[in-house]
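Quick one, T. Sequence first:
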Amino acid sequence: MDEDLLRVARGDAPADLVIRNARVANVRTLEVEDVDLAVAGDRIAGLGRYEGREIVDARGAWLAPGFIDAHIHIESSMMSPAQFARAVVPRGTTAVVCDPHEIANVLGVPGIEYILRAAEGLPLDVHVMLPSCVPATHLETAGARLEAADLAPLFGRPHVLGLAEVMNFPGVVAGAAPYLAKIRAAGDRPVDGHAPGLSGPALCAYIAAGPDSDHECFALAEAVEKARRGMMVIVRDGTVAKNLETLLPLVRRADAWEVAMCCDDRHPIDLRDEGHVDHLLRRAVALGADPLVALRAVTLTPARHYRLRGRGGLTPGAHADFVLLEDLKSFRALRVWKDGREVARDGRVLRDPADVPAPVKASVKLPPEFRPDFTVPARSARIRVIGIVPDQIVTRGIVEEAACSDGALVSDPARDLVKMAVIDRYTGTGKFGLGFARGLGLKRGAIASTVAHDSHNIVVAGVTDDDMRAAVAEIARMGGGQVAASGGKAVASLPLPIAGLMSDRPIEEVAPAAERLRAAARELGSPLHDPFMTLAFLALPVIPELRLTDRGLVDVGKFDFVPVCA
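Structure tokens:
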């Protein structure tokens, strides 16, 4: 025990820092206190009346614990961990619980090692849940395969908290040995769930196997059942999947100790324009949540669940992670402290965090002079179509009349039906699966990306095969990224040199490039808020109902392939 800390706590010695005249948000008792907060070193010494070497007059502003995002993929920000920290810390975020399964699916253990190494020395605690599903399923090609034996040595590493979202819930419920082995390898550590729509005896079996949280609830009754059965419900409101309004009754309950909030996947434009966890808080309060209850869901609740001792609250002995807020409506961060040091003020970090070299940059392997034949023979007049659901990552499996030309199935932009392909970018064979989607809204051209959850092969959708090929060619030339193409050439692009997922540039450069891509997609007809992130999730074969991988069209309910022609 630090004797200096005790002397300050007793009032026998001056604090290093005292925050005075703040309205202190007590997220334990849901009260507002008018007390000083005293800091000694990197810890909170006490609350009450204190003297200090440095006095900060809060002038009636609100003092709250630093925000914690309970579940996020840093890779989805399309920035390195250092640049991500630079973007979110000034908004009050002092910790994230991240699942690096995006980069792990591309690079394996070296990808996880990169995230752990890149997190060192940041003004942000980056806690890691080890990826449980690399690859996510047997229905796709990934860049790596991680078994329980690969994960076991990593559980003892600093900042590794437990096992990340176990997405193959049918496998867990059925008792599949590989998934149970990974859960056992986690020991008594937290295990994140990922079981959209699961209920009844199957849910009980899933929870009995070990998963103790879920961020995939898209219906209130589902979230209530999972909470009743012992899961921490993590209410998500990201760039594509927005569940907060539906699940708000859980967030509003003052006794909802086991309800947290997360962003999951947050695009750089939204991080810049709307914010991070502060955006979740604004949304929750605007929808009717008590500000203190909402604050608890992004501070104390995730800290308790993930066993982050000394985090998530303003109590004696806790780490001095706190944020001075303008009010509990806008949640605008005026100043941010991390471990007793001020790290951000007025929307800017006080010191730019340092980047570390990425392990592998170019990660797109295609045959030389790759020119894929995207022809789909018209074996039937009816086709299975991936139906996009607005503001959700679930899809609908629908059957539509096909448009045909010269004996082949083609896009029909008048009915919002476009062709899709997912192309293996790891083995060098260039094999691909073909399908159709409704809801992207493209009238011409094509869009493509190496951000394609979870295996991150190349996903492309377009009105003409030539534009689809042009977009893929530009992806290959860049070594990974996102592209919009029209007239047989790329019209906008965003290079993502780190594993085809992340840029090494700051948000001031990444966000405008992403804006140019969005604008190009709108010019091609898409009305979606973020067509590229929507496209990325169409390749995710663990979320209902219909998906496309490099191996073919997947019926997620059957967990098997189905033909395009119905």
